[in-house]
Design brief:
The chain has 306 residues and is an alpha/beta fold. The protein has a domain at 3-123 and 155-208 and 273-283: Rossmann fold. The chain contains 12 helices and 5 strands. A 5-stranded parallel beta sheet has the order 2-3-1-4-5. The longest helix has 22 residues, at 262-283. The relative contact order is 0.16.
């Protein structure tokens, strides 16, 4: 039976690097019986994921059409493994196609396939910091992080997100991985998902030389936040400053700037502790904590997005 792998992020878990690597290695993947399909690929520059598959889920009709085209491409390929990837899928469901309906549609369209829904989770406090880092770097965020948190709170409800997906696809289809150096194979997202999907990275697969879309270092974040505030009404000047700061201050893999006080971090961890335990119990079959204290440093070769 063929298998559909649906990689859904989360955001800021190495998705850009992973998607670029799979996109560039489509021929090598096909030789390994894996299809990284055309259906649903984003047409925007510097995007290599299947984001249109997520956006189509805003309405049932659009979702039906695009996901059926994915099924048609999968069947026509004759390959046993289909791998799609978009962190935008972690934003499901959308208001006009609510609840488990998107996942039930996928299950119906891909009847006869095994479906594996793969999600990489990271500690909620780390995700907040990483999303804030990205928005300061790329979106022009000017607020401090405590004001920013309210905007991303829905993304932190891992238990709810996974339970809704499981309602449509079945608990057996849900694969949870932890985006932390000690839990990823070789502390690397590409190595980890290759292991999950049976891809041999030593068989004609060209690895990326460096991570794409890295965050900013602590110094870079401070400089970019100042530029966002100073040049908010001067877009060309801000663009020039952004380019300079990003070039000069990239973050290392799994960089964790001290954006939250110890008190705020502890409060966030306590808020999600029980929910995370339920995730670990249901999807990992473990009574251990979902997230454990991380080492201070990750290997320099690791691919990540801070």
């Amino acid at each position: 039976m063929p298998t559909l792998y649906i990689h859904t992020g989360l955001h800021k878990t190495g998705t850009t690097s992973l998607q670029k690597a799979f996109f560039d290695n489509r021929a090598a993947l096909a030789r390994q019986n894996v299809l990284y399909p055309d259906a649903g690929l984003s047409q925007k520059p510097f995007n290599w994921g299947h984001h249109e598959l997520a956006y189509a889920m805003r309405r049932r009709a659009g979702a039906q059409a695009l996901w059926q085209s994915l099924r048609d491409e999968a069947d026509a390929s004759g390959l046993d493994k289909i791998l799609v990837s978009s962190e935008e899928l972690s934003l499901l469901p959308f208001p006009h196609f609510p609840g488990a309906e998107p996942y039930k549609l996928i299950a119906k369209i891909f009847e006869g396939y095994e479906i594996r829904h793969i999600t990489y989770l990271r500690p909620q406090a780390e995700l907040i910091c990483s999303l804030y880092n990205h928005n300061v770097k790329a979106v022009g965020e000017r607020r401090d992080i405590l004001e920013f948190i309210a905007d991303v709170t829905p993304r932190l409800e891992y238990q709810h997100y996974l339970n809704v997906a499981a309602l449509g696809l079945g608990v057996q289809s849900i694969i949870v991985r932890r985006y932390t150096p000690q839990h990823l194979i070789d502390s690397d997202i590409i190595s980890d998902i290759a292991d999950l999907t049976g891809i041999d990275l030593d068989n004609g697969f060209d690895r990326p030389k460096a991570p794409l879309n890295p965050g900013l270092s602590s110094k870079g974040l401070e400089a970019m936040l100042l530029a966002n505030r100073r040049y908010a009404e001067q877009p060309l000047r801000l663009q020039a400053e952004r380019k300079r700061i990003i070039a000069q201050h990239p973050a290392s893999a799994f960089h964790r700037p001290s954006l939250l006080t110890d008190e705020a971090r502890s409060l966030i961890e306590a808020l999600y502790l029980q929910k995370n335990r339920m995730v670990a119990r249901r999807y990992l079959g473990s009574d251990e904590e979902l997230f454990t204290p991380e080492p201070d440093m990750a290997p320099a070769s690791a691919i990540s997005e801070s």
